[in-house]
Design brief:
By secondary structure, this protein is of the alpha/beta class. Helix content is 60%, strand content 6%. The protein contains 24 helices and 6 strands. It has a 6-stranded mixed β-sheet, with helices on both faces. It is elongated and about 80 Å long. The N terminus is likely disordered.
C-alpha cells in the first residue's frame, strides 16, 4: 500500500472492501428505521395554531396560494407541496404529519452523503447517527410545518456550497443553486444562510469567486419573482407575537437545531477540540462562519422586527451538522464519549401530544351548536385550527371582526388593527348578529403564564380577550349555558397555550 493510499484510507475511516455497498445501505436503513420509530409516536396528535394555518392555506387553489401568503408572511413552496399531498392523502393529522416525517428521515442519508463526501466515511456515519436521533427533527418531523423540509434542504445546500464554491467543483453548482432556491421558497430565514455563504466565500473562497458569483446570480434571478411579495410581507406582516432576543439567546442559538441540554454541551466541547486539531482544513471553519453569520444576522434583524424563534433554525441544521461530523471524528475518545452521550439522551426524547387542546375543545363545543351559529375566538390566529375541527357550517369572528376566510389568519397590520379595537364599537356588531334563542360560543385562551403573553401581539390579545369575555358575561341579553375546559391532570397533558370555550344563548 502506498503512502497516498494509506492517507486516503485514514481519511475515509473504512476501506470500501471492509464495508461493501450493501452494508452501507443496511446501516442507513437501520438508522432510518430507528428514526421512524422515534418520529411516529404522536403522529396523530391534534393540530396547534400554526398547523391549522398550514392546512388552511394549503386547501386553497394552487394559483391562489402565492398571493394569499401576502397575509401570512411565508414563502409558497411548502404550502404548494402540502396542497398536492392533501389532494392525494387527505388533510388528517396523521396524513399531514407524515408529509413532514419524510424529509426528517431523508436527512439521515443526506447527512451521510454530505459528511462522507467532505470529511470521510466515519464523519458520514457520525452525521447520519446524529440526524437519526436529533430531537429537533424528532419534534418537527411530526408537525405540519415546513421546518423538516427546510432542514433537509439545508444539508444539501451546505454540502453543495463546500464542493461547488470552496473546492471549485463546478459540477456541484447546479445542485447548490437548486437547493438554495428551494430553501428560499421554503423559509425566509434562508436569506440569512445566503448571507453566511457570502461571508464564508470572502474569507475562505476568494480563489473561486467566479463560481460563487455565478451561483449567486442565478439564484437571485430565480428568486427575484418573489421579492415584491417578500417586501410587502416585511412591511405589513412580520412576527409581532415574538420577543426580541437577548444575548443569552444569541449564545444558545446553535443548540436550537439540536437540543439545549447536556448532550449538546458535550458535543460542542468535543467538536471544538476536534476542529483545533484540523486547523489546516478550511471547510469546517467556513461552515462555522456560515452558521455564525446567519445567526448574527437573524439576531440583529430580530432586534427590529421580533422574528426570533428557535424553530426557524432549521435552515442552519446542514452546516452545523456537517461541522459536528468533522469535529467529532478528529476529537478521538472525547468525540466518542460525547456522541454516545447524545445518542443515549436523544434516543429517549419523546414528543408529547400537548401542543394544543383545540381539537378536544372544538369537538366538545360542536355538540351544542347548529349550522349558522357564531364561533367567536378572542385569540385570532386560532381561527384556522378551529375551522379545521368545527368545519364550514358556522360563522367565525374575532376582535378584528367577522372572518370571511376562516382558513387563513390575516397578519397584515394585525397589531395596529388589534390595538384599535374597542368593546363599544367592535363587539356590539358581532353580538347583534346572534338572533334571539340562538346559541354561540366564545373560545378564549387560558392565561396562566405571563411569560407566554409578553410580546406585543400576545399582550394585546390578552388585554382585548379579557375585556371582551367580561363584557359578554355581563351582557343581560345572553345566558351562559356551559363552560368547556380541558382537565389537563386527568388527560395527562400540559398544553402550551390551552383554550377554553363558553357557550351562550341569546335570551328571547
Amino acid at each position: 500500500m502506498t503512502t497516498a493510499q494509506a492517507i486516503e484510507r485514514a481519511r475515509l475511516g473504512f476501506d470500501a472492501a471492509t464495508l461493501p455497498r450493501w452494508a452501507t445501505a443496511a446501516g442507513l436503513g437501520l438508522l432510518c428505521a430507528i428514526s421512524v420509530w422515534l418520529r411516529t409516536r404522536v403522529l396523530g396528535a391534534g393540530f396547534w395554531i400554526d398547523e391549522g394555518i398550514s392546512v388552511g392555506i394549503a386547501h386553497h387553489h394552487l394559483t391562489a396560494i402565492p398571493h394569499l401568503l401576502r397575509q401570512d408572511g411565508s414563502p409558497p413552496l411548502y404550502y404548494l407541496l402540502l396542497h398536492a399531498w392533501i389532494g392525494w392523502f387527505g388533510d388528517g393529522e396523521r396524513a399531514t404529519h407524515t408529509f413532514s416525517l419524510i424529509p426528517s428521515v431523508a436527512c439521515i442519508p443526506l447527512a451521510y452523503w454530505g459528511a462522507r463526501s467532505l470529511f470521510g466515511r466515519t464523519a458520514g456515519w457520525v452525521c447520519a447517527l446524529l440526524a437519526a436521533v436529533d430531537p429537533y427533527l424528532t419534534y418537527y418531523g411530526q408537525e405540519t410545518r415546513m421546518y423538516a423540509l427546510a432542514a433537509c434542504l439545508s444539508i444539501v445546500a451546505a454540502t453543495a456550497y463546500v464542493h461547488g464554491v470552496l473546492l471549485g467543483r463546478r459540477r456541484y453548482l447546479p445542485l447548490l443553486v437548486l437547493s438554495l432556491v428551494l430553501l428560499l421558497y421554503t423559509h425566509n430565514w434562508s436569506l440569512f444562510l445566503c448571507a453566511g455563504f457570502v461571508v464564508a466565500t470572502i474569507l475562505f473562497g476568494r480563489d473561486h469567486w467566479r463560481e460563487a458569483t455565478l451561483a449567486g446570480v442565478v439564484t437571485f434571478l430565480l428568486y427575484a419573482p418573489w421579492l415584491p411579495t417578500l417586501v410587502s410581507q416585511a412591511q405589513h406582516t412580520g412576527a409581532p407575537w415574538a420577543m426580541r432576543p437577548g444575548f443569552h439567546a444569541l449564545l444558545l442559538a446553535p443548540a436550537a437545531a439540536f437540543s439545549v441540554d447536556a448532550a449538546f454541551g458535550a458535543l460542542a466541547a468535543a467538536v471544538g477540540v476536534g476542529l483545533a486539531r484540523r486547523r489546516g482544513e478550511a471547510a469546517p471553519f467556513a461552515l462555522l462562519v456560515v452558521a455564525a453569520t446567519a445567526i448574527l444576522a437573524a439576531w440583529t434583524e430580530s432586534q427590529l422586527s421580533s422574528t426570533w424563534t428557535s424553530r426557524y433554525f432549521a435552515v442552519l441544521l446542514g452546516p452545523l451538522l456537517l461541522v459536528a461530523g468533522a469535529g467529532l471524528v478528529r476529537s478521538g475518545r472525547l468525540g466518542i464519549a460525547a456522541l454516545a452521550l447524545a445518542v443515549v439522551l436523544w434516543i429517549g426524547y419523546g414528543v408529547h401530544d400537548d401542543k394544543s387542546n383545540a381539537r378536544a375543545v372544538a369537538h366538545a363545543a360542536a355538540r351544542y351548536l347548529a349550522a349558522g351559529d357564531l364561533v367567536l375566538t378572542t385569540h385570532p390566529e386560532q381561527t384556522p385550527v378551529l375551522r379545521y375541527y368545527l368545519g364550514p357550517r358556522f360563522r367565525y369572528a374575532t376582535q378584528l371582526g367577522p372572518v370571511p376566510d376562516p382558513r387563513v389568519m390575516n397578519w397584515r397590520d394585525a397589531l395596529e388593527r388589534l390595538r384599535a379595537v374597542t368593546v363599544a364599537r367592535d363587539l356590539e356588531p358581532v353580538l347583534a348578529s346572534v338572533r334571539p334563542g340562538q346559541r354561540f360560543v366564545v373560545v378564549s385562551p387560558v392565561f396562566r403564564d405571563y411569560r407566554a403573553w409578553q410580546a406585543r401581539w400576545t399582550r394585546e390579545v390578552y388585554l382585548t380577550s379579557q375585556a371582551w369575555t367580561r363584557a359578554i358575561a355581563a351582557d343581560p341579553r345572553f345566558r351562559r349555558v356551559r363552560t368547556i375546559t380541558t382537565d389537563e391532570i386527568l388527560a395527562e397533558r400540559n398544553f402550551w397555550k390551552p383554550l377554553q370555550a363558553v357557550l351562550y344563548v341569546r335570551r328571547r
